[in-house]
Structures
1.
Amino acid sequence: MASGKGGTGKTTIAVNLALYLAETNKVALFDLDVEEPNDNLFLQCSMVHYLHVDILRPMVNTTACTYCGLCANLCEFNALAVLPQQVMIFSELCHGCGLCTLACPTNAITEKSHRLGTIEKNKNHLSNISENLSFYEGTLRVGEALATPIIREMKKIAFKETTDHIILDLPPGSACPVIEALSGTDFVILVTEPTPAGEHDLKIAIEVVKKLKIPFGIVNNRSNVGDNRIIRLVEKNEYNLLSEIPHDNEILYLYSHGLPLIGSSKKFDSIFGKLWKHIWQARN
Ligand code: SF4
Ligand code: SF4
C-alpha cells in the first residue's frame, strides 16, 4: 500500500483492507511508516516489544589514526571527513555499512552499537476479528533519520510470517525508505486523490513502481471531491483502477474518532470486498 503523497487515505485503506480480509483469512499487517506510524490509532491493539533495531557506527582511535583520508574517500554517504589532525563523523549520515572499519589500514576504527528504533507486535486481538490479524509497528527513534534498516528488518519478519496475506503500509513519497519497502512485493496499491498534488505525486509513484517492475493498481480516494484528472490519467494510460471511494461523512466521523470502517457498517464491507476482488483479479 503506497501513496505518492501523505494524506490520501493510505492508512485507512491499509487498515480496513486488513480487517476485511481478517474476517475470513489470516492477515499480517506491517506499519512501515516508521517516522509516523498511525495504523494502531484505528486498531487500538496493545503492543509488546518485538525487536530493537541497532546499527554499528564507527569510532576513531586518534592514536592509531594516520589521517590518510581513505575512510572518508570510501564512504559513499559522506559521513566522514578527515582533517589534518581530526576525523569528523557525521553519525546521522552513517548507514552502518562497516566499509570504513574494514578498509582502515591501521585498524584505527572500532564500531559501537547505536539504536535506531524498535519494532512492536500486537499483544491482543480485536474481538471482532478473533485471532486472524497479526500487526507489527516500526518506530524510528526521535532525532534519527535512517528509516531503511527498520523497514528492512520488518520485511524480514513479514516474509517469514505464516499467513494468507501480508499487507505493508508504506511511508508516503518515493524516497529511499519507500524503495526499500517496495522491493520484493508482488503488487502495489497506489492510493491517490483527484487533486493536482494527488495526480503529480501519483505520476512519480507510478514511475517508481514501473522501474521496479512491480504490478500496480490505483485507488482513487475521495473520488467525488476533486475533478476527474485521475480518471483521465487512468484512461489515457490504461492503468488498472481498483476502486473509487467517494468522500463520505461517515468515514470522516469514524476517522476522527479513531474507529475502523470495517465492522461499523455493511456498506464498507461491500467497498472493501469489491476492492479485494479487483486486486485479486489484477494479481492473477
Ligand atoms: S582510514 Fe583509518 S587511518 Fe585513515 S583516516 Fe580513516 S581512521 Fe584514520
Ligand atoms: S560505516 Fe559505512 S556509512 Fe558509516 S561512516 Fe563508515 S563507510 Fe560511511
2.
Amino acid sequence: MKIAISGKGGVGKTLLAAYLSSMFARDGYSVLAIDADPDANLAATLGFPNPESIVPISDMKDLVEERTGTGGGKPTPYFKLNPKVDDIPEKYAVKYNGLRLMRMGRVKQGGSGCYCGENTLVRSLLAHLLLASNEVIILDTAAGIEHLSRGTAKAVDKLIIVVEPGRRSIETAREISKLAQDIGITNIAIAGNKVRSEAEKEYITSHLTGYEFLGFIPFDQAIVDADLGSSSVLDASPKVAGEVKHIYQTLLAAQPGDISK
Ligand SMILES: Nc1ncnc2c1ncn2[C@@H]1O[C@H](COP(=O)(O)OP(=O)(O)O)[C@@H](O)[C@H]1O
Ligand SMILES: [Mg+2]
C-alpha cells in the first residue's frame, strides 16, 4: 500500500504520517516511511535517535554524482536520466522500532531547464519505491506534491490531504487536489485535524463537498505539550490515537489483502 500525505504547512501531515507508519509497523507490515519535506521532522516525531543526523538523499553528493554523472548540479554530457536506485533503500534507510525511514531532501523546482542530479536521483528513487516495492510506503510531503508525477501517480493508493478548520488550509487542499487530478491521482481523501467542535467539523465538510472524509482528528493540547517537551508525541493523546486508528482501519479495509508483511 502506498499512501501520500499532503496539505498546508502545520496542519498535521507529519503527525498523521508518524501515527500511520507506527500502526502499520506494529501490525507486522513492512513499512518504509519517507520524509519528503525539506523541513524534515518525521524521524523526530517517530522517536528516531539523533534524527538530525539522518542525511537526506539529495545531500549525498557522492551518491548523486556516482549515480547520475553530475556533481554539484552541473550538467555533464554523461548525465543519466535513469540512474540505478534499487540498492539505495537497503543501504540508506534507517531502522528504528520495527520500521524504516528515508529522508529525500529538497527537490528543486523545474522550469529553469534544471536537470540537477539531486532531482533525478530523488525522483527515480521515489518512482522505484512507489512502483516496484511491495511494502507499505508512507510519504510525508511538503505542502505540494512535486515529488509525484504522472508516472508515479498510478501507484499511489491514497492521497490523504490533511486540513484543519480554516480557510487557507481548505484552499490549499483544493489546489493540491487539482494538481493531483492533473497528474492522474484519483484516490484522494480528506483527513480533518485539530478539530475542536462539531461546528469545526461541519466547517470542513461543508467547504469540501464531494470528497471522501477519512476521519476528524481532535485537537489535543497534550500533543502540543509533548511537542514542546521532549516526550513522545505519539503516546501523548489517546483521543488523537483513537481517531487515527479509525483512519488506519478504514485504509486497511479499502485495500485488497496483498500488502507485504
Ligand atoms: N490534533 C492535534 N492536536 C494538537 N496539536 C497538533 C495536532 N496535530 C498536530 N499538532 C501540532 O501541530 C504542529 C504541526 O504539526 P505537523 O504534523 O508538524 O504538521 P505538518 O507536517 O503538516 O507541517 C505540531 O506542533 C504538532 O504537534
Ligand atoms: Mg511536516
3.
Amino acid sequence: MTDWIADEVEALFPQLVSWRRELHRYPESGWTEYRTSAFIASKLREWGWKVYLGREAVEPSARYGVPESEYLHECEQRAIAEGVNPEEMELMQGGFTGVVAEWVTGRPGPVTALRFDIDSNEIEEAEDIDHSPAREGYRSCHLGLMHACGHDGHTAIGLGLARLLSQNEDNLAVAGIIRLLFQPSEEGSRGALAMVEKGWLEDVDCFLGGHIGFGAEHLGEIVLNATHFYATTKWDALLRGQAAHAGREPEKGKNALLAAATAVLNLHAITQHSDGVSRLNVGRLSAGSGRNIIPAEAWLQLETRGETEEVNSYLSQEAERILRAAAQMYDLDLEIKKMGEAVSAVGSMVWDGLRRQALAHGNRIELIRDSLALGASEDVTLMINKVQEHDGLASYFLFGTPVKYGHHHQGFDFDEKVLAIALEGLARVVGELNRSVP
Ligand SMILES: [Zn+2]
C-alpha cells in the first residue's frame, strides 16, 4: 500500500542523502558549527520557517565547554572561506551556534518540539575504500574532524521533516506550534542546557528526539524509548605548582605531574556504588614542559557517569575529593571546571500507544520495539526532564541501521535508508499528534 507520506518521503530521499553527504563533508565540532548552522538556517528560511540563529537560539551563559577563542576564530575564518556570509557570522561569532525554527500555524493544537543534534566528533576519518564516504567522495575535508556519530544524518532528517511539513500543511492538518531545535555541541553534553535556558522547552506539550543506530541494528526497526541514559559530568582539572631546576634544586619545585599521576590512579580506584552502573574515565592528561624541569602544571580531562544521578554525583564528589587531596599532598593549586553535563531521564510511557499506532502505518517500518537500553549519556535528557516538569510528553526514539564499526570510530558509517525511515516515522507521529492531542 502506498500513501502520500510514503510518496513524499520517497521523493525527498535523494535530497536527504545529498544534505547528509554535504554535512558529512564539512564536519564541525561543538560550538563551531558555523557552516552547519548557516546551511540549516538558509534552507529553513527558504521554506518559510521563522528562523532563530546562533545568539538568538542559545543562552550565552549556559554553554558548557566552549573552546578557546583562538580555535573559535580559526573555525570562523574557515566557515567564511567556505561560504558563510559575514552578516550571518555576526550572529554566531564567539561560539554561538545552533538553529531553532518555528512555525506558528495559528490553528489550535499542541506545541510540538523536535530536537536534532548537529555537531561532529574530533576524529580523523578513515581513508580506505571500504569506507563509503572516502569511496564516494564525501569524506571529511576538515582535518581531525568527522561525523562519527550520525549527527549529519540527524540534521538531514530534521531538514527533511521541515520540508515535508511546510509543503504538506493541508495534508497533515498541521496545527499548534512546531519547533525544530537543531542543537549544537551534543558531544561532551555541552549544548542542550543552552537551549533549555533560552526557554525553548517551557511551553512544549510534545517533545521528540532520537538517534540512529546505538544498538538498534535493523533497517526498518524503530524503538519507541531509549532507556538507561547515564547521568554524566565532564570536568577539566588544572593543577598548578612550581617549576625548578631538576638537578640543581628540585626541592624548590612543586611537582604537578606527580600530583596528577597520583590523582589518576586513585580516581580509577573509586569504590563502585551499589545503586547501579558507574563509570569514570580520565581521557586526557598532559603535564610538564621539559625533561630537566620539575613539572609546574598538569591538566586532566575526566568524566563520570552513573546509572542514576545519585551514583553520578557520588562519583563526582569522590573525584573532586581525590583531586583536592592530590593537590594538597604536593602543595599545589587546583582549579576544577565543569565542562558538560547530562542527567538521567525516562521517556513518557503514556503516549507509546499513540506513537506505535502512528508508526504502524509506515511503509518502511517493519518492527516497532518498546524500549532498548542506550547505556550511554545524551544531554537531550535535560530537555526531556524540562518538558516532563510541566506534564508535557517527551520521548527518545532509536532508528535502526546497521553501523559499520561503532559510533565514534573512524570508520563509522550507516545505511542511508535509515534517513527515509526516520523521516517517515517522525512525520507520521507529528501528523497523529495534531489529530489526538488537545
Ligand atoms: Zn550521537
4.
Amino acid sequence: MNKDVLVLGAGISGLATAYWLKKEGFNVKILERNDEPGGAMETINENGFLIDFGPNSGLETTPLIAQLAEEIGIKDQMIYANEAANIRYILKNNQLMPLPTSPQAFLKTNLFSAKAKLRLMAEPFIGKSNDGYYQSMSEFVVRRLGQEFLDYAIDPFVSGVFAGDPSKLSVKSAFPKLYRLEEIYGGLIKGTIKGARERKKNKEKSKQSAKMFSFINGMQTFPKAISNQLSDIEYNTQLKKIEKLSKGFKVYYSKNGEEKSIETEILLSTIPAYVLSSLINFDDNLKSHLNDIYYPPVMVLYLGFDKKDINRELDGFGYLIPSKEKKSYLGAIWSSTIFPNRAEQDKASFTLFIGGARSPHLFESDKDKLIDKVLNEFKQVTSISGDPVIMRHKLWNKAIPQYNIGYIEHERYFEQFEKEHKGFFLSGNYRGGISVGDCVKNSKITFNRIVNNV
Ligand SMILES: Cc1cc2nc3c(=O)[nH]c(=O)nc-3n(C[C@H](O)[C@H](O)[C@H](O)COP(=O)(O)OP(=O)(O)OC[C@H]3O[C@@H](n4cnc5c(N)ncnc54)[C@H](O)[C@@H]3O)c2cc1C
C-alpha cells in the first residue's frame, strides 16, 4: 500500500489529520503558504498583551482535543475559561443586558418583552418544517421562537459564530445540531432535554455545556505544538496548479522563485475553498462549487486599556450586538477577563469583531475612520474614559466560509468528487463545521476516510 500523503495547508485541519496519519505510519508532507503553522489560529505577544487575531477560544466538544493536547505534550498549557465567562451580554438600547441562562432569569429579563416570552412557551407545540437545507436560520427561528428571539438572541449569536447573516445561512447546514432537535425530537425544548441524555451516553458535549478552552500562551500554541511533531512541512510555498495523472495527482508550486512539483497518489487539501478552486483545471463542477462559497471579510480589532479608565465591572465573556442596534461592530470579547496571561494586572484587553456577512461593505471606505468610529462606540458602550494603551488590527479579507442556503449541493458534490477522483480528499473548515472543535473532529473523520480508502 502506498503510504505517501501530500497535505495542502497547515491550519488545524491539515495538521491534526497529518499528525494522526503519521502516527499510523504514513509519510506526510505539508505545503503551507505562510511562514508558520496555524492558519486562522494566530497569536502574537506585544507590550505585555497576548493577542489572538483568530479564535480566542475553542469549545471542548470532543475528547479528541484534550487527547491530542496530551499526546503532543501541551495538556498542562491548556486552560479553561474563568467562570465569569458564562455571563454573556447583549446590547439593547445602548445597555448591556445579560443573556438569561435559567428559566427564572428568562422570566425576569428585560431583554425580551412579555409577548416574546409567551411566544417562546408555544415552541413545543409548533410542528416540523420541510427540508432545513433550504430554510434560512431566520425562517427557522421566527417560526419556532418568534421575531424578537431572532433579533435579540439568534442574530447576535450567528454573528458571534459565523460572522454570518441568519437570513442567508442554511439552518441545517450551518447549525445541524439545532435543526436535529426539531427533526428528531419535534422541537428545541423537547430536544434539548432528550439530547442531553443521549450525549451523556456517548460522552459528547453540546456546544452549550462544553468547556471553553485556550492555552496559556494563546490559541496558536495548539497548531505550533502539532507541527513540532511533523518533520516535513514546507513553508512559504506558492501553489500554482494541481493536475490529475493517470494514477494520482501532480501539485505544482514555487518557493523562493524556484519552480517545484510533487506527484502523489494521496492528496489532502485543507486550504480554503476559493484557493483550491483556482488550482484545479480537471473538474469544472468542483471549481464552481468551491468558488461559490462566500467568505466575508472580518476585521479583528484588539484594544488594551488601563483598568483605572474602565468604569464598569468586566464580569462576563463580553457582548454581542444585534443588527437592530445599528452599531459599526459585531461585538466585543473581554479577553483578559476570560483567560489569565492576556494582559498585565492593571490592564484589560478586548477583542472586537467588525464586518462579516452582515456588513462587508464597511471596508470599502477609509479603514482608519472606521476604526475610530468603532473605538468611540465601544468606549461609550463599555463605559471607558481613557485612550487605549495598545490598539492592533487584522483584516481577514476572506474570513469564515458561510454555509448558506443550498450549501448541501456543494457538500453532495464534494462527496461525488472524492468518489470520482480516488485519492483526492477535501477537508478544512468549509466541510463539517467551522469551529476549532469541529475542525478537530472532522480531521479525525478525514484521517479515517484516508486510512480506509487507500
Ligand atoms: C477571525 C476569526 C475568529 C474565529 N473565532 C473562532 C472562535 O472563537 N472559536 C472557534 O472555534 N473558531 C473560530 N474561528 C474559526 C476557526 O478558527 C477556523 O475555522 C479554523 O481554525 C480553520 O482551520 P482550517 O485548518 O480548516 O483552515 P485555516 O486555518 O484557514 O488553514 C488553512 C491553511 O491553508 C493555508 N493556505 C491558504 N492558501 C494556501 C496556498 N495557496 N498554499 C498553501 N497553503 C495555503 C493557510 O495559510 C492556512 O494555514 C475563527 C476564525 C476567524 C477567521
